[in-house]
Automatic annotation (TrEMBL):
Organism phylogeny: Eukaryota, Viridiplantae, Streptophyta, Embryophyta, Tracheophyta
Compartmental location: Secreted
Gene Ontology biological process: rejection of self pollen
Name of the protein this chain belongs to: S-protein homolog
Recorded GO CC terms: extracellular region
Family under the similarity heading: Belongs to the plant self-incompatibility (S1) protein family.
Keywords: Secreted, Self-incompatibility, Signal
């Protein structure tokens, strides 16, 4: 009985210390490539970074570590004025552990906000991938 308890504890302990499960350091960058100002509000369940106005080619960034449960999620609400004068708004998951935690971000999650939508760099192949349409 003592051996089973020890074996179970050993299995749980080795699963917890794997970097894919928690504690992965991530740095998110959101860059405005609209050619017009972008209002950005980024948050998680526990944290909000407030309102940020980004001019063309400016970026907002922050760092965090993923949680133990593999449920880390950050999203950003974005608002900008298109060339016709209409306000465009949307919300984007900029880090979702189930999508990005397996290495897609590889420490850095880089996002580009453009007039046709929002793009992410896939760090597996350094390609810019269209992710969200307005």
């Amino acid at each position: 009985m003592g051996l089973n308890g020890t074996l179970c504890w050993s299995t749980v302990t080795s699963a917890i210390i794997q970097p894919d499960y928690f504690g992965r350091k991530v740095h998110v960058f959101v860059t405005n490539q609209l050619g017009t100002p972008l209002k950005l509000i980024c948050r998680s369940k526990d944290t909000t970074f407030g309102d940020h106005w980004l001019n063309h080619q400016q970026f907002f960034s922050w760092k965090f570590q993923t949680n133990l449960w593999g449920t880390t999620l950050f999203w950003c609400s974005m608002t900008w004025k298109n060339p016709q004068g209409y306000f465009i708004t949307g919300s984007v998951d900029v880090f979702n552990f189930s999508r990005d935690g397996g290495g897609r971000c590889m420490g850095d999650c880089r996002w580009f906000v453009r007039q046709e939508g929002v793009y992410q760099i896939n760090n597996f192949n350094d390609k810019v991938v269209f992710m969200y349409k307005w």
